[in-house]
Amino acid sequence: MAYVVNIHEAKTQLSRLIERASRGEHIVIAKAGKPVVDLIPHRNRPVVFGGLKGRIEYDDDAFGIDPDIQAMFYGDADAPA
Predict the structure, then answer these.
(1) What's the Cα-to-Cα distance from 33 to each of 9, 11, 14, 36, 63, rounded to whole Å?
(2) What is the pLDDT, as a whole number, of residue 53?
(3) Residue 77 has what DSSP assignment?
(4) Cα–chain-centroid distance for residue 74?
(5) Residue 5 exposed, middle or buried by CB count within 10 Å (0-12, 13-18, 19+)
(6) Cβ-count burial 6-45 (b if 16+ within 10 Å, e if not)
(7) What is the pLDDT of residue 58?
(8) What is each CA distance from 70 to 58, 75, 79, 81, in whole angstroms?
């Protein structure tokens, strides 16, 4: 069963509500009687490097100089000076 609180009460008792949620209680913040947000404890999620390894492919040209961008910054090399 969830403990439902309106926004005004949540603002005035936020510290208490955070403590209750951190102990595992389900807190629902409502606006005009309609649930808007669930207050839940934070869960650390590990950072995974290389999560897309084997799922995407690219070639070395992906890191080359794009001639259009080069021209925007430095002007067109083929244009007369």
Answers:
(1) 12, 16, 18, 9, 54
(2) 86
(3) T
(4) 36
(5) buried
(6) eeeebeeeeeebeebbeeeeebebeeeeeeeeebeeeeee
(7) 83
(8) 21, 7, 13, 16
pLDDT tens digits along 18-68: 999 999 999 999 999 999 999 999 889 888 888 888 888 888 888 888 888
pLDDT level of residue 81 (50, 70, 90 thresholds): low
pLDDT confidence band for 80 (50 / 70 / 90): low
- Look at strands 3-6 and 34-39 and give their pairing: unpaired
Chain-centroid distance of CA 50 in Å reads 19
Taking the C-alpha atoms of 25, 28, 33 and 36 in order, what is their torsion angle to the nearest 10 degrees?
-170
Outline where DSSP puts E strands in the chain: 3-6, 27-31, 34-39
